[in-house]
Amino acid sequence: MAEPAFDKSVFINCPLDEEYEGILQAMLFCVVYLGFLPRIATERADSAENRLSKIIELIEASRYSIHDLSRCQARTAGEYFRLNMPFELGIDFGCRRYVERCKDKKILILEQRRYQLKAALSDLAGCDVEAHGEDYEKAVRKVRNWLVNEAGAEKIGAGRILGKYADFQQWYFEGQLAAGFSEDDIKDYPTSELLAAMTEWMALGQPL
What is the pLDDT of residue 64? Predict the structure, then answer.
């Protein structure tokens, strides 16, 4: 199988829990709809594969990266900080500095609330960080604007992308039900299969 095109690949580093799933899926659709290829650790499910090595490989294979650090802060007493996501951002900054073909890599950093990260990561001072307020529509707008401005994506409005996302969800849900899947099955679909469905929907001409 051919290696995905470096100039069209977008590495996504974000929370992978159920609560965040709606934001992730909407961002994945936005990236696909604008003609790019999302790269995410869960695209491959080989338990024998070293996770960190896989992440480094994906970062080095992507000209663009999205890092959502909105879950780095503990929410309740006794809860640990989530450090994987800022760690992966650090790897990406290192990749940009030391890997020759990544010298022009573009990075989008997201947070939940404006200025939230700079209190904890002062090294981000001077970096533009966008806030989505845990709203999937805002997240799509931020990703859309970034891909248009930094990656030369077609200037399609966020409103149209969100409308097409609703069309895709209906098509996908009805197709899965017709194929014998239950609603619980559909909700538990692996990310790799959902991405494949988004790509198929685009190839089929965005059916209703």
Answer: 98
DSSP state of 112: S
The pLDDT of residue 125 is: 67
Q: Has residue 13 been placed in a domain? A: yes
* pLDDT at site 45: 65
Within a domain: 174: no
Q: What is residue 76's predicted lDDT score, i.e. its pLDDT?
A: 63
Residues of the chain with pLDDT under 70: 1-2, 44-48, 72-81, 118-120, 122-123, 125-126
Q: What pLDDT, on a 0 to 100 scale, did the predictor assign at position 114?
A: 81
| Structural domain boundaries enclosing 29 | 6-156
Q: How far apart are CA 24 and CA 140, in angstroms?
A: 9
In angstroms, rounded to a whole number, what is the distance separating the alpha carbons of residues 7 and 110? 21
Question: Exposed, middle or buried: residue 180 (CB in 10 Å: 0-12, 13-18, 19+)?
Answer: exposed
Instruction: With respect to residue 98, please indicate whether it lies within any of the assigned structural domains.
Output: yes
Amino acid type, 189: Y
Structure tokens at 206: 């965005």
Nearest to 143 by CA among 125, 166, 124, 165: 165
CATH number, domain of 16, equals 3.40.50.360
> How many structural domains compose the chain?
1
- Whether residue 201 is contained in a domain is answered as no
**pTM value?**
0.91
Amino acid occupying residue 196: A
* Burial class (CB within 10 angstroms; exposed 0-12, middle 13-18, buried 19+) of 38: buried
